[in-house]
């Protein structure tokens, strides 16, 4: 019976997003029904064998496809782009989101429930509307969903998880805490998510550069939990910024990296996106390509003239920032030797 209620709840949720409900009364009414259907639902672990977990959703990568099911992949320090399968080769790590549950069994809850069942299907509906009409105004239901998606997209990448691992290593090395503290959710929320521990970013950055080939083992569960808590904390702050859609001029295209959300502090001109506790700062803007010609942007007090489009120079600037902020790969609709050459010259995301 609970599984039936879950299916009904899913259908209602997707229906609400497809119908673009703007009336507050009906929005609250249908959300109440959805809450009732979802009540008391208990996730049944379906993990049985290794799974491909895409850290860039496939529906996003398909927007950049070179031909159906394929996309050009550029590797840092590579000799040139290669056409790879979106489903089987691009932007995935096996079991990347699998953690050990309370019974010490591998669980795919985060991948199946948070990403595959909720966020990705809903956001794919919204982004299709934006692709059809870049001037589309998201509904009151869609706006927080987009902010939540962007927040989780920041924290669900290999680069962010790598930084979390280094952060644990750094905090232990500095004597700020013990490894057991990372299993305490309240400690994570108060001391790390809200930065009660007062992380010295410059000192941490120097530590990372000196320990690039080192890592802390046995912390995957903690990394997944902390990444999720950080995303939940950032989502509301991102939501409070102004959302606009940037469109490129004809024959001008964005690339997307394996770390697809760019966080820029225009006051310091830095794109080092690890200071999540400062995401609400008015000088910080957030940029994410969702297709070769479209990107969503969050900023404070920004106004958009729908007739304005990003010219080739500005698109190239953002593409170069994408390269700098990547871990080691970018994806594009086109094969371009200039892009590969520029990518090879970019410093790493830790520089």
List the helices and strands and how they pair.
Elements: H1 2-19, H2 24-38, E1 52-54, H3 58-63, E2 70-75, E3 82-85, E4 92-94, E5 99-100, E6 106-107, H4 109-132, H5 142-155, H6 158-173, H7 185-193, H8 201-210, H9 220-239, E7 242-247, E8 256-257, E9 262-265, E10 284-291, E11 294-299, H10 312-325, E12 329-332, H11 337-345
Antiparallel strand pairs: 1-4, 2-3, 2-12, 5-6, 7-11, 8-12, 9-10, 10-11
Helix pairs in contact: 1-2, 1-4, 4-5, 5-9, 6-9, 7-9
How would you briefly describe this protein structure?
With 351 residues, this protein is an alpha+beta fold. It has 11 helices and 12 strands.
Describe the 3D structure:
The chain contains 11 helices and 12 strands. It has 351 residues and is α+β, with helices and mostly antiparallel strands. A hairpin with a 2-residue loop joins strand 10 and strand 11. Helix 1 runs antiparallel to helix 2 (24-38), helix 6 crosses helix 9 (220-239) and helix 7 crosses helix 9 (220-239). The longest helix is centred in the middle third of the chain and has 24 residues, at 109-132. The mean pLDDT is 87.
Helix segment tally = 11
**Biggest pleated-sheet summary:** 4 strands, antiparallel
Please give the alpha-carbon distance between the first and last residues: 53 Å
Low-confidence stretches at least 5 residues in length (pLDDT < 50)?
Answer: none
Structural class: alpha+beta
Q: Mean pLDDT, as a whole number?
A: 87
Helix percentage:
40-55%
Q: Taking Cα atoms only, what radius of gyration do you get, to the nearest Å?
A: 20 Å
């Amino acid at each position: 019976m609970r599984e039936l209620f879950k299916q009904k709840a899913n259908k209602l949720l997707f229906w609400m997003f497809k119908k673009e409900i703007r009336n507050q009364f009906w929005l609250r009414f249908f959300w109440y029904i959805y809450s009732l259907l979802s009540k008391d639902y208990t996730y049944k672990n379906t993990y049985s064998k290794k799974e491909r977990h895409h850290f860039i959703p496939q529906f996003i990568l398909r927007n950049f496809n070179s031909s159906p099911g394929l996309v050009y992949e550029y590797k840092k320090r590579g000799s040139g782009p290669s056409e790879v399968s979106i489903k089987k080769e691009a932007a995935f790590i096996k079991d990347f989101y699998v953690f050990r549950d309370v019974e010490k069994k591998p669980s795919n809850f985060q991948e199946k429930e948070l990403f595959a069942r909720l966020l990705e299907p809903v956001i794919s509906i919204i982004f299709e509307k934006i692709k059809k009409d870049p001037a589309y105004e998201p509904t009151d239901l869609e706006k927080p969903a987009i902010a939540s998606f962007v927040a989780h997209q920041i924290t669900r990448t290999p680069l962010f998880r790598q930084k979390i691992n280094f952060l644990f290593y750094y905090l232990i090395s500095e004597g700020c805490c013990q490894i057991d503290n990372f299993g305490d959710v309240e400690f994570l929320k108060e001391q790390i998510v809200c930065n009660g521990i007062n992380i010295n970013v410059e000192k941490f950055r120097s530590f990372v550069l000196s320990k690039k080939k080192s890592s802390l083992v046995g912390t995957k569960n903690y990394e997944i939990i902390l990444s999720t808590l950080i995303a939940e904390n950032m989502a509301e702050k991102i939501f409070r910024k102004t959302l606009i859609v940037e469109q490129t001029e004809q024959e001008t295209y964005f690339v997307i990296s394996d770390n697809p959300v760019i966080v820029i502090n225009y006051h310091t001109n830095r794109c080092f996106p690890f200071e999540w506790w400062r995401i609400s700062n008015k000088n910080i803007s957030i940029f994410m390509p969702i297709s070769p010609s479209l990107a969503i942007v969050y900023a404070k007090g920004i106004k958009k003239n729908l007739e304005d489009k990003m010219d080739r120079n500005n698109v190239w600037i953002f593409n170069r920032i994408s390269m700098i902020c990547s871990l080691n790969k970018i994806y594009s609709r086109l094969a371009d030797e200039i892009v590969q050459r520029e990518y090879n010259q970019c410093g790493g995301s830790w520089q």
